[in-house]
Amino acid sequence: MNGTAIPQQPRPAVAPHPSGDPRFASLDETLDRYHYEPTALIQILHAAQQLFGYLGADVLRYIAGKLRLPIAQVYGVVTFYHLFTTKPRGKHQILVCTGTACHVRGSKLIFERLQQQLGVAEGESTKDGLFSVHQARCIGACALAPAIAVGDDVYGKLSPDKIASFIKKDLKKYN
Ligand code: FES
Fold first, then answer.
1. How far apart are CA 144 and CA 112, in angstroms?
2. Ligand 1 pocket, mutate which of 94, 102, 105, 108 (most atoms under 8 A from CB)
3. Full-model pTM
4. 98-116 burial code (b ≥16 CB/10 A, e <16)
5. Could you tell me if the CB of 139 is within 6 A of ligand 1?
6. 92-173, superfamily in CATH?
7. Bridge-partner residues for 155, per DSSP?
8. Which of 55, 114, 133, 151 is the most exposed place for a label (fewest CB within 10 A)?
């Protein structure tokens, strides 16, 4: 039986991003791969975060425009899921464990001290872009509580008073 071809929905024209940033061309390829389908928003956001490192306002506006979604809806999804970030992360992420074993040994104070001494709020990166500080739920080093991780390295038995020397000595090796 001969079927009648169903006309495809016209796709939005892909105009290059005015910034000239080549990562937008890669983002266009992702959007195209998902056929500009709003139901693929999470996958597209995920790919965008891998490309840009974080989801800045211009990227979110761009995606919302291409998917023809209200910007508020896109922001709503980004803020709902913890895996997305709207701030640039440091090259090295410092994870302060706030799991039970670490919490009862004072990880909250360690977290605050790190933020103060590095001059950043949670999730922000230091001025040199090297570090950002985040909270994590159990990093698997409970015997070393309170513990923090920098990339794959774990540092244990910390205390708020050790943070200054930790920054001076241990963080120096990351660049
Ligand atoms: S609770 Fe902190 S490492 Fe497990």
1. 19
2. 102
3. 0.68
4. bbebbeebebeebbebbbe
5. yes
6. Glutaredoxin (3.40.30.10)
7. 148
8. 151
